[in-house]
Amino acid sequence: MLAVQRVLQSGRFILGEEVKAFEAEFASFLGGGHVVGVASGTDAIELLLRAMEIGAGNGVIVPVLAPSAVAAAVRRAGACVVLCDVEETLTLCPQALRQVLEKQCGIKAVLAVHLYGHPCEWKALEEVCEAQGVLLIEDASQAHEARFEQKAIGTLGRASVWSFYPTKNLGALGDAGAVWTSEAGLAEKLRCLREYGWRQRHVSELPGINSRLDEMQAAMLRVKLPSLPAQVAKRRELASCYLSRLRGVRLPLVREGCEHAFHQFVIRSEHRDALQAHLKLRGVLSAVLYPAALHQQPAFACAERFPVAEKAVREVLSLPLHPYLSEAAIDAVCAAVEDFPA
Length: 342
Prior knowledge:
Largest sheet: 7 strands, mixed
Strand content: 15-25%
Order of helices and strands: HHEHEHEHEHEEEEEHEEHHEEHHEH
Helix content: 25-40%
Oligomer: single chain
Distance between the termini: 49 Å
Number of strands: 14
Structural class: alpha/beta
Strand order of the largest sheet: 1-9-8-5-4-2-3
Radius of gyration: 20 Å
CATH superfamily of the largest domain: Type I PLP-dependent aspartate aminotransferase-like (Major domain)
Number of helices: 12
């Protein structure tokens, strides 16, 4: 592959020209701003919080239905994880958020996860956060090419975090991540923090870490980025096939004014485990993302109840969806679902 040869011939494997080029190209793809490549989406959250001086003594609200990496990154930044329930799209609930902010002190930021590729209700969340004087940050790691009211996800606020894990809509060949921001000063601070706090080599001005996007991953992402719109368009086309043909299960919601990226196609069933076993016998692979809400996991356990998320984790099931899936395969999946004797 020419991109691999280019990196090998350069002799530069960390924070070289490929990273610079990808940062510029991804920023342009998003419509402007500044992109800082880092080693993973988890690191992106930690570094952004640290760059915004959110840490010890501060609370960060995260949706209780989210990858555990989100909460882990908040902890790594030194902040306290504060959980909040989701709404029926399984993204952060504005009403629940208001209630949490009204009863808890010390909240500095809210991390809104565009789960499965569906945009959060950004305007409502923004109004709540502005009224309470807290920052609202996007986790766009599952929402490459999604849109909220025609604006690209990841550019709705001051900053967003991204993962390019191989299974993402835009995936590298290993771990990779980035932070997008509209602020040049914040981007410069992030570049410093991602490499030991260096502005000048071997001189640490800030207590940074080692979280560098390597050249090979950046080169792969540069190759794949131009095809992202077509790949997501294909995901939407296949999702539309599912939506028109599936019966007997609860289908994913798409809020008006949103363009879903369909990182996952998630149905819901009160008989989820039996349905998954049935599909496996029919040769259809499926996945449960996620089998436990954050408060149900030992590392983040709490006694508070989150009814919407608790019901969702008993019901959600991801069906096969990727740009290379055929309509015949979609038909076979739908037939298997319809044959389930619920």
